Write the structure tokens for this entry.
Amino acid sequence: MTSLDGSCDVAVAGGGLVGLGTAMALAGRGLKVTVCEAEDHVAAHQSGHNSGVIHSGLYYKPGSLKARLCVEGARALYRFCAEEGIAHQRCGKLVVAIRPEELPRLDELERRGSANGLDGVRRLRAEEIPEIEPHAAGIAALHVPETGIADYPAVARAYARRIEVRGGRVVTGARVLGVRRDGSGLVVETARGAFAASLLINCAGLQADRVARLCGADPGVHVLPFRGEYYQLTSERRGLVRGLIYPVPDPRFPFLGVHLTRMVSGGVEAGPNAVLALKREGYRWRDVSLRDFAGTAAWPGFWRLAARYWRTGAYEVRRSLLKGAFVRDLQRLVPEIRPADLHRAGSGVRAQALDAQGRLVDDFHIVRGERAIHVLNAPSPAATASIRIGEEIAAMAVAALGRD
């Protein structure tokens, strides 16, 4: 395991896909980079516990960072996976409307797909849905052929290899504990020692707001941990799903609803839901942190959010605890699914920024501070967009350092 000593041009806090993608881009520009990952391996949290989808860019507001970087990033990621021999598949997906009131939202998704430059998005009538997914049902759908799946932990490991080939370091077990100014640079204190850097890039995900405060910055947001829980179809019932089947999402929330996803391993995953976790790395109900919960309760935006959407939150809790509620939502997409067809699988925790007014931050949120760049909101589709996000942040870093 690489040790921490010496100095570097840029320290990157966080060894998930965004941090590694940024470090890879920086190392490719000839900068000396050190990635500090708190856990004992890369992609330990969001990057290694997501649904494995390569998003197309369908959902995001045209002109937003998410829209631009997701569309460009997906194409870059397909190329990267092919170059590295990483398991991936461009399997396409259906976004299925179940009720008439969802049709205007489906129209808007079709418009966004066109505005964002997606290829081949096609509107389907009810009778055309079985041509793509024989067991799905709805009154209309969008077929999105550019959507795919990938082995994201393998992608993260490949990013790390490229960083090291280019002269950078990826150090695990190196949680960032403090950052202080030292002349024109910084001293980054970690669980494995301290080192000097000219600039810090904060890609700490679930801990991003805390790392920003360690740097003396006011992030202006609080990171809420939302746990997403998954089921898997039994091996005998995997034939119910060919690719990916999604509902039409609720535009009030940055979540896409429980859906069905074929994985690169051949299995089929169902989920995730979105339950407020009681710990930032709270993958189970019994994972509780009084510090984390107290921090959330002290943030004024939390109570404003709760006052508006407590019914939605209560439904998510019910769906988490009762398999039948989860199954009923899946049956809206694939009516043949039965409770016996599903068994509980893993979970992930999404780092979602919340502002003081109680608004869930929708777009990627990247802020420049004093000798630091803070990535304060990078949930889905950040894994898809990680190569392009990294290139974007690397350009900001080069400008901050005054390098060509």
Q: What stands out?
A: Residues 38 and 128 are 48 Å apart (CA to CA). The first helix runs from residue 17 to 28. The two ends are 32 Å apart (CA to CA).
